Amino acid sequence: MSFPLFSSFLSRDKSVTNALAVKWASCTNVYPKPDMCECVGHVCVMYVAHRVSADHKDLIHDVAYDFHGQRLATCSSDQSVKVWDRNENSEWICTASWKTHCGSVWRVTWAHPEFGQVLASCSSDRTAAIWEEVVGESTDRQRTQSHWVKRTTLVDSRTSVTDVRFGPKHLGLVLAACSADGVIRLYEAPDIMELSQWSLQHELSCRLSCSCISWNPSCFRGHPPMLAVGSDDSSISSGGKVQVFEYNENTRKYGRVETLLMVPEPVHDLAFAPNLGRSCHLLAIASRDVRIIQLKPLRREGVLSQPVSPGRFETQQLAQFDGHGAQVWRVAWNATGTVLASSGDDGCVRLWKANYLGNWKCVGVLKGDGSPVQGDGAGSAQTVPGCANTSGGPITPISGFPILNGNHAIRNRLPCTSPYFLPPDDNLRSASRVNAVPLPVPHPLPPLPHPLPHSAGNRIPSHPEHRITRRMSSNIIWSSHDSANQ
Amino acid sequence: MSLLTSHARIVRHEFGTSLEELSRSGHRGTLTSHRDYLDVVVAGRNILKVFAIEEEAFVEKVNLRVGRRTSVNYSCSDVAWHQLDDNLLATAATNGAVVTWNLSRSSRNKQELLFAEHKRTVNKVCFHQAELHTLLSGSQDGSMKCFDLRRKDSVCTFNGQSESVRDVQFSPRDYFAFAASFENGNVQLWDLRRSDRCERMFTAHNGPVFSCDWHPEDRGWLATGGRDKMVKVWDMASARPRELFCVQTIASVARVKWRPERRYHLATCSMMVDHTINVWDVRRPFIPFAAFEEHRDVTTGIAWRLPHDPHLLLSGAKDCTLFQHIFKDAKRPADRANPEALCFGPRGDVAFAAKEGLSANDPARRALPGDRRNPFFFIRKAPEPYDASLTQQHSGSVCSVLNVFQRCDAKEKLNPLENESESFVELAQRYCLAGRPFAELCDHNARIAMELCRHQVAQTWLILKLLYAGGDASPSPALLPNGGIFCGKDGSSGLGGDGMSERGKSEGHGDGGLEEPNEETEGSDVENLTASVGLYAAAAGLYSGNGEEERLELLDQDTTTSDFPEFSLPPEAFALRHEIVDGPAGLEHLQTNGPDGPGSGDEDGTDEGMRSACQGKVGGSTAGLGITAAESVSLISVSQPLFGQTLPPEVFAPAVIAMLEFYAERGDVQSTVSTLIVLGEKASGGVDTLVQEHWYLSYLELLQRFRLWDVATQVIRLSTCAAISALNHDSTSLNLNCSSCRRALGAKGWLCDRCRRCASVCAVCHHAVKGLFVWCQGCSHGGHLKHMHDWLSASPHCPTGCGHLCEYT
Predict the structure, then answer these.
(1) pLDDT digits (tens, 9 = 90+) for A278-309
(2) Least packed by Cβ within 10 Å: which of B49, B193, B641, B671?
């Protein structure tokens, strides 16, 4: 379906605006000053690198934010898991650290907070475990180290459990675990209050040693539950290394619906993008390179909501980046599924974003040790090896490629968060001692206060330079992409 | 490293029975080193055979189990081959017998001596490295015996005074010393000359110590493995045995063997569960350095084939196979382990943990920017166990660096667009979704979007307003600066043009034609600009034709061909549009309609855009121009009914729905849902309810992620989707007790029937609470949110004075 009116605005206004802005500025001799150039050249957002001294005795294999981004869990080969809480100064404080397994802990993942503060971990000791936080008595005001209680151990695997993921919230408390012998096991807690009871619901075989797993987070009722599994099998001959399984309502089983033959190399990580109302699914794959694959469910003609034969997909590779030099180890999406972060053997995190044409471009590099990235020239065009074109075309130099690292960033902190009240659903199992619940007394929500008086928001910045800066800064990413897309 | 070669290299032999123990042969000759150690003896409950190791296979040389009657004496639990004498073997039997064999005997029965002194199973036999005739045995009965093979019975008995002996090992350095490990977790150090008591004893493990092994080079290093899944390395040379290293494995450890020529390497196999043979670097105790995974059942015996070659490992298992492994083919869990961890926080934070030093060698690699496939990869992955540098690389433990990259604007709030999550929260909180007339809502939301530099979204709001509230679409002057997308760039011309609509009217017609040849020569890019510029003017109703002209002139005079790439748009940008074929007819209609319309200032903009577009079509012979023209015509034809007031709003529905879908596909579900709510029935009819539900749920999830609970509640309330509205009805029943008499409250909810008091009285201000009532779950006292907050931030005690220490989190 085409979209005549709005899309022309939407796709165009950026570049048009920017072009006109530059034009206007140049002909009226108010050419942007050097600092503005820098602003055009570099995205005006910086990352501040906060070194957290994790104090793990071996490699950290996984790090996971919780649903709200206020807590962090790390797991390591030293067989322990640590939980970090963000304090008012946005510093990360270790609030719990405990030995979880008898082997390397490969992955740790949070359940949705509706189910309480629950973690799952998996390890090379062939088990996966479910942990729940128990906060001490309310009498001790000092909130001491919370402790985490093992609720269950899932011992079905005969080999190392390589990944464990909680399913999307609307499926209930579901856990998928995959192991090196190529078996994916789906567990379910029938009673979400009883975390020690997990039943093995499905056992799927993908025949190749599994390395990673990802649920499709879509809550669309037309999308059946779906998960993708990546394999680190190293032989090219064993075919596609990413398999997609989907639940079939009729057979009540998961079936393989897709094998992505375009990924013949070992896959180390994969992640479905958060599906915020999209009709298709985006899957990022970390292999020798970063790939973004779009899975578009094929539907019956005309009926939008009815999925036809389940498992019919139109797969399309949207992007392939070669930036990390060698192996890419991890991929992660932001909350809206618009920015992809990948990390590889070069020790850098690269951020990828699609422009309005759907071309994915590198928009940032973060160094793992916070040291400056080479070629950190101000505003100068530079060739970024990471920005291979999706269409296999020549690598285009991206002017104004932002180099972000801790040393160059301005050290300011986020405003501290004021105390909040947990809502009822979050409060189900959390140990907060004060509840906020609307009383049955009828109380209509007051109309939202008008944030700004009608006139106050309309003041034009009087100085023309100021306005230019605002306009241009909003178009930075786009301008660089426009020039790159010729 | 392909699997094919690795299989070809591994010599494998299958037996009909499970293997208990194996031992490689002793010296064959001292000079021909490649002929060394060519035999292996395999012992089990039903097997005792000597095999020759050939290039591709094991070849059976001698079967020691001969005779019709299978004696229990041959049911072996352990076998040892003397290091100095090729023909001398000793086996330990499960019935307590220790048997020695002489392979040089000519008869079929090679058995030489039989010692039946132990009462129970003999777990271990061990030859002295230097003494030809000294044999040591350790038994389940708790005693160790030393035999002199020249005599028919034991020389002396060592009684450990503790439980069963699992392993005995002569020290390679101390002539008289041997170590013994016990089932109760003890390790004892004995002197051969003193049989009355041990030199030293310490508890090494929690549970049985199944195996111990002296380090071949380091004097005094003893490795022990036990049922507690630990492997420990002890320094026995110091006054008290000191634990040097501790390796935690996943299953109880059955055998430990130091790897020759590698000081820190230790091979282990497990007694149950785990079938792999792991080789550990004891300095990195968490991930095995190498692993052999060929066996399908529990490995029972391991032996390095040559005392000075670390690359050949023999192993036997309960799956009835004997393997010779080549170290090159081992899996390297330490190398395969993921060195990095990465996570994206909801607020745009990136948590990243990387192996220390992973990026340290980065500058050298980045020095070659053209080199995209970095050769470093091949170097690192190539299995080169012969390379000493590789072992150096693994020296010591490995650590990760954990960094949390938090977003912050370089210039305070200068560019909120970049901080997606911040602007999401701002928009969510400040959007006005209901309670006011439609046009006002649109204006309000557009202004807010504009303040946050979301120009697209702001423009969308304005267009929506124009489409659906077209009747009163006169742009309020207050909106002008923020509402127009062009105000920033060409503010002077746009603002100036406002008062000059008359002039613009005339010039708009006259100059448009004059400009045309210029545009043609400059190509389609300017056409695009012109068309869209005209369109903006038409849609926003802000600019007269005058503004257009000036803008075009600007472009004309500055645009050189070299400048083009800066602001030209590739044709794919317009792939979404459908074509309208009857362009000329529509244009005719517009041209006649335009000047006659009521609002002259607005029409001029439309006219201008249309004119240039029309002329672009006429003049443009290239395909690109044709697309441009057709597309801009189609745009105008959509917006045209605004002015004629002839078409009902349903005409826009496809475009609006496409807009909603556009935002959803782009991941901006906030815009989709907000416009959907504000549009209400106007748009929701055209969208499938399931899709709507999907949008709502997605937006709600995002709101919950950012803890915007009240916004989420409002969205649920305002949603037109039945499934979403029902969310607010889930689990809404509350059972309340009176805070004073602790009885269940009745139907009224706030008034206690019994004590005739209002149950929800604020403990601080003693007024009844309406709205949010906060209470402590411990003492059930509470009150207004703010009052409780203030009180508890000052005092830890309950404001009622009940003495409870309330916790406010």
Answers:
(1) 888 899 999 888 999 998 887 654 444 444 45
(2) B193
Distance CA A479, CA A161 (A): 45
Measured from the Cβ of residue A97, the count of other Cβ atoms closer than 10 Å reads 17
pLDDT surpassing 90 at residue B582: no
Upper half-sphere CA count for residue B88 (Cβ side, 13 Å): 18
- Measured distance CA(B100)–CA(B493) in Å, rounded: 108
Are B413 and A469 spatial neighbours (Cβ–Cβ below 8 Å)? no
Q: Quote helix, strand, coil % in chain A, to nearest 5.
A: 15, 35, 50
Residue type, A92: W
- Closest Cα partner for A404 from B407, B345, B360, B372? B407
Instruction: Provide the 3-class DSSP secondary structure of residue B125.
Output: strand
Query: Quick one: which of A281, A279, A275 has its CA closest to A295?
Result: A281
Binding-face residues of A in 221-250 toward B, CB within 8 A: 221-222, 232, 234-235
Look at residue B110 and tell me whether its pLDDT is greater than 50: yes
Beta pairing partners, B256? B268
Residue by residue, DSSP assigns B235-261 as E-SSSS-EEEEEEE-SS-EEEEEEPTT
What residue type is assigned to position B593 of the chain? N
C-beta neighbour count of A29 within 10 angstroms: 6
DSSP H stretches of helix in B416-500: 420-430, 438-451, 455-468, 480-483, 491-498
Nearest CA in chain B to A125: B250
Directed axis angle between helix B545-558 and helix A4-27, to 10°? 60
| B673/B663 Cα distance (integer angstroms) | 9
Q: Distance between CA B434 and CA B470 in Å, rounded?
A: 19
What average pLDDT does chain A have?
68
CA distance A224 to A249: 8
Phi first, then psi: what are they for B226, rounded to 5°? -135, 180
The whole-angstrom separation of Cα B644 and Cα B657 is: 23
Local confidence band at B119 (pLDDT 50, 70, 90 cut-offs): confident
Bridge-based pairing state of the strands B134-139 and B200-203: unpaired
Nearest CA to A66 out of A115, A101, A123, A122 is that of A115
Q: Which of B329, B344, B718 to mutate to test the interface with A (most CBs of A within 10 A)?
A: B344
Give the confidence band of A123 by pLDDT, cuts at 50, 70, 90. very high
User: What are phi and psi for residue B17, nearest 5 degrees?
Assistant: -140, 165
Closest CB to B635: pick one of A5, A14, A18: A5
Residue of B nearest to A444 (CA): B771
Model pLDDT for residues B751-766, shown as the tens digit of each residue:
776 777 676 778 788 8
pTM of the model: 0.69
Structure tokens at A384: 């970024």
> What does the CA dihedral B695, B698, B701, B702 come to, rounded to 10 degrees?
-100
Q: What is the pLDDT of residues B585-639, one digit of tens each?
A: 333 343 433 334 333 334 444 444 444 444 434 333 333 333 333 343 334 333 3
Q: Is the pLDDT of residue A108 over 90?
A: yes
Q: Which of these ranges, A95-109, A406-420, B91-105, has the smallest mean pLDDT? A: A406-420
Strands (E), B475-608: none
Among A110-124, A361-375, B714-728, the least confident range: A361-375
B702 → closest Cβ in A9, A335, A476: A335
